Amino acid sequence: MSNIKVLYVEDEPFLGKIVKESLESRGFMVQMVDDGSLVMDHFTAFQPDICILDVMLPNKDGFTIGKEIRNLNPTVPILFLTAKNQTEDLLTGFNSGGNDYVRKPFSMEELIVRVNNLLELMSLGKNGKNNTDHFINIGNYTFNPKKYELSFKDQVRKLSHREAQILSMLIEKKNEAIDRREIMKMIWGDDSFFNSRNLDVYIAKLRDYLKKDPDVQIITLKGIGYHFSVT
């Protein structure tokens, strides 16, 4: 793990020291920044493998930074740290390029699990069976899992890493029932209530992306999960 570079953005000195030292004790290379206005310069110079961003920062908030990072790099995992937990805040985080969201206060064990899970998913995206050069047809859509692109005619939508991972899981189980707990355990590592809300947000986003073709539907199976119907 010694070659994994973490850009950690946090303006609370005490918390920042604990998190930085805990990550370093596990072999991560950590560059910590405490001012939102300085993050992009550090991002460009450091070229991190994963970004951990506090939301409330001086001079520039984490959501704005997330969008700027995502514009430069569409695939680097972004994990937001925040005390906010309302659905609209989750949506803001995901729309800002976030792959995951940890509420304060959090345990270091939870943070490490989520960081490792994001890195594992990124590795699967680079080396796994879904990372092919061919396009996957989904009704009138085409999906490029390598480039995280969902296309409809001449319109191309760039997906986040997490959106692409969930869509890939649905495609693998196309026209079958898929347990929502299976998705949560694969994507987040557990099926907690908070991750259940995260999944709801992502499913709503994917439904919106796929709404132009009525023959492509993500159907909710109450008490079970989903059925990804493609006719």
Jot down its keywords.
Arc Repressor Mutant, subunit A; alpha/beta; 2 domains; 231 residues; Rossmann fold; 5-stranded parallel beta sheet; globular; 4-stranded antiparallel beta sheet
Overview of this structure, please?
With 231 residues, the protein is an alpha/beta fold. The protein folds into two domains: 123 residues, Rossmann fold, CATH 3.40.50; 95 residues, Orthogonal Bundle (Arc Repressor Mutant, subunit A). It has eight helices and twelve strands. Strands 2-1-3-4-5 form a five-stranded parallel beta sheet, with helices on both faces. Strands 6-7-8-9 form a four-stranded antiparallel beta sheet, with no helix packed on it. Helix 1 links the parallel strand 1 and strand 2. Helix 4 packs across helix 8 and helix 6 packs across helix 8. The longest helix is centred in the middle third of the chain and has 20 residues. It is globular. The N and C termini lie far apart (44 Å).
Distance between the termini: 44 Å
Q: How much of the polypeptide forms β-strand, as a percent range?
A: 15-25%
Topology pattern, helix = H, strand = E: EHEHEHEHEHEEEEHEHHEE
Helix content: 40-55%
Name given to the CATH homologous superfamily of the largest domain:
Response regulator
Largest sheet: 5 strands, parallel
Q: Multimeric state of these chains?
A: single chain
Number of helices: 8
Number of domains: 2
Which whole number gives the mean pLDDT? 86
- CATH architecture assignment name of the largest domain: 3-Layer(aba) Sandwich
**Class based on secondary structure composition and strand pairing:** alpha/beta
Strand tally: 12
The shape is: globular
